[in-house]
């Protein structure tokens, strides 16, 4: 009053909004009721197009309505001329554009747009590229739009090199654009393949990409987008080793059985030749990395020459105290020299960056990956220190870092043993901070030969990853973190097939009470 504007109270505003919502819900129910009635009568007509259009413009995420419109357009395709069909599709494309203006991340609208354009007699896919560019200007991380861009590029013949240049522009605009980095990773194998076919990406371009990541990291070390892209560049997918066939690491020929262990998943069975003749029998894949052959050779000591042939090479077996064996150390050099020099430079710069931002977990984590890629042995101590630091900086992910530690400790020990780890009768993994058991593909003969296994003073919570150990006589699991969950420990030990076990220690564990493993004790025959 007296010339002052009346301001609505909160209660009044809420009442108005509630009334508006009620009206919208009423209109929506009425429209959906009419649509379902017509749909029940199997009437695919213009009225259905109008009704579904009205609802979709308000809410483009009702997938059922888009499906109804697709049914109508498929019926039109049988009846209409190309000219009529072109006009109908143009109108449908405008509808999807209006819907995307309301919700740029509507999966249904993007999908329907691509689908309906395939019905157009003369689809203008190049226009779609321009549309994607405009939408990406508004939201550069709209992954729905990036997916549609890939479709439009393929349909319009937009070359991978042009798409690669687009990803360049988007990254230069904002290096925090994770979608652009991901898009780039899909294009690199097409635009810059390794001419020798050894790796996924040409070495010099690989080094250039790592340099791009480094520039982004120096700009903002705490931004994760570039770090994730670098992890992909450093991964096995891009390495020389990934393009090479599975390499046999260990071959053993003993009485009645032969075992071949590989560096990675081997889908092809090996071949065993003894004194120039193929050994008969069926090879069985025991795991992704291990093949086993049961044979009928009597005395292996009488064999003059034995060799195993795989897609990754040929190995001649040599006599030993446990049969005929061939052991090969796994090559840790997964990258070529050009990339390796770049990795060393990046590690140096990561350490320099840590002097400027000493609490950046991404820099520590990247340094760990770099050290593992360069030299497992040389940087083992420093890798462990960095993982300790990561646990301090990022305690919510301590389990992940403990898991990495377990993996890297096993790789370090295997590198020291030069592949002979698996042929020892006594294996000690005590005081290694292990939370999981990794790389048993390289310890295939532990199953056959190991009599004594020391896993004491670690951080093992479960034994889920323990392999079958029928020859094991002495097992020390003391001072771990084995779970109190009823029956869990004895179930894991049963799965390990410990038929020869004579001594077992689980003291200083949450499950150290003998009642927790009473059934197991009754089953096993201790001497």
Automatic annotation (TrEMBL):
InterPro entries: Leu-rich_rpt, LRR_dom_sf, Prenyl_trans_a. Keywords: Prenyltransferase, Repeat, Transferase. It is an enzyme of class 2 (transferase). It catalyses: geranylgeranyl diphosphate + L-cysteinyl-[protein] = S-geranylgeranyl-L-cysteinyl-[protein] + diphosphate. Pfam families: LRR_8, PPTA. Transmembrane segments: none annotated. Its EC number is 2.5.1.60. GO terms for molecular function: Rab geranylgeranyltransferase activity. Catalyzes the transfer of a geranyl-geranyl moiety from geranyl-geranyl pyrophosphate to cysteines occuring in specific C-terminal amino acid sequences. This is Geranylgeranyl transferase type-2 subunit alpha. It comes from Cloeon dipterum. The lineage of its organism: Eukaryota, Metazoa, Ecdysozoa, Arthropoda, Hexapoda.
């Amino acid at each position: 009053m007296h010339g002052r504007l009346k301001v609505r109270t909160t209660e009044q505003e809420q009442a108005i909004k509630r009334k508006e919502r009620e009206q919208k819900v009423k209109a929506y129910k009425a429209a959906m009721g009419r649509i379902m009635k017509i749909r029940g009568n199997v009437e695919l007509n213009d009225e259905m197009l109008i009704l579904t259009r009205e609802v979709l413009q308000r809410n483009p995420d009702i997938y059922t309505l888009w499906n109804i419109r697709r049914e109508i357009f498929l019926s039109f395709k049988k009846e209409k001329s190309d000219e009529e069909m072109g006009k109908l599709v143009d109108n449908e494309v405008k509808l999807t554009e209006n819907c995307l203006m309301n919700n740029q991340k509507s999966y249904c609208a993007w999908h329907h747009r691509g689908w309906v354009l395939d019905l157009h007699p003369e689809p203008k896919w190049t226009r779609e590229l321009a549309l994607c560019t405009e939408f990406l200007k508004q939201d550069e991380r709209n992954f729905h739009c990036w997916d549609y861009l890939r479709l439009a590029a393929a349909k319009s013949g937009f070359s991978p090199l042009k798409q690669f240049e687009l990803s360049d522009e988007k990254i230069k605009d904002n290096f925090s654009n994770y979608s652009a980095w991901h898009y780039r990773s899909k294009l690199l194998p097409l635009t810059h393949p390794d001419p020798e076919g050894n790796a996924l990406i040409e070495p010099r371009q690989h080094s250039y990409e790592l340099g791009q990541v480094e520039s982004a990291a120096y700009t903002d070390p705490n931004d994760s987008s570039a770090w994730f892209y670098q992890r992909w560049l450093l991964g096995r997918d891009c390495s020389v080793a990934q393009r090479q066939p599975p390499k046999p690491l260990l071959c053993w020929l003993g009485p009645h059985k032969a075992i071949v262990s590989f560096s990675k998943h081997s889908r092809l069975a090996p071949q065993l030749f003894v004194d120039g003749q193929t050994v008969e029998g069926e090879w069985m894949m025991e795991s992704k990395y291990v093949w086993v052959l049961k044979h009928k050779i009597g005395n292996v000591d009488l064999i003059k020459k034995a060799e195993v042939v795989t897609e990754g090479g040929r190995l001649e077996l040599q006599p030993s105290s446990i049969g005929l064996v061939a052991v090969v150390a796994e090559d840790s050099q997964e990258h070529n020299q050009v990339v390796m020099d770049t990795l060393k430079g990046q590690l140096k710069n990561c350490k320099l960056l840590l002097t400027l931002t000493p609490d950046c977990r991404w820099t520590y984590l990247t340094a760990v990956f770099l050290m593992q890629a360069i030299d497992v042995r040389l940087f083992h101590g420093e890798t462990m220190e960095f993982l300790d630091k990561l646990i301090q900086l990022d305690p919510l992910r301590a389990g992940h870092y403990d898991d990495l530690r377990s993996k890297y400790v096993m790789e370090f020990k295997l590198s020291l043993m030069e592949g002979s780890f698996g042929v020892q009768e006594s294996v000690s993994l005590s005081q290694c901070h292990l939370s999981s058991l990794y790389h048993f593909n390289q310890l295939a003969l532990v199953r056959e030969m190991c009599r004594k296994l020391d896993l004491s003073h670690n951080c093992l919570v479960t034994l889920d990853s323990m392999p079958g150990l029928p020859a094991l006589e002495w097992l020390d699991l003391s001072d771990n973190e084995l779970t109190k969950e009823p029956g869990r420990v004895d179930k894991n030990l049963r799965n390990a097939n410990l038929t020869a076990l004579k001594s077992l220690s689980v003291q200083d564990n949450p499950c150290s009470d003998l009642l927790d493993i009473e059934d197991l004790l009754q089953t096993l025959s201790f001497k």
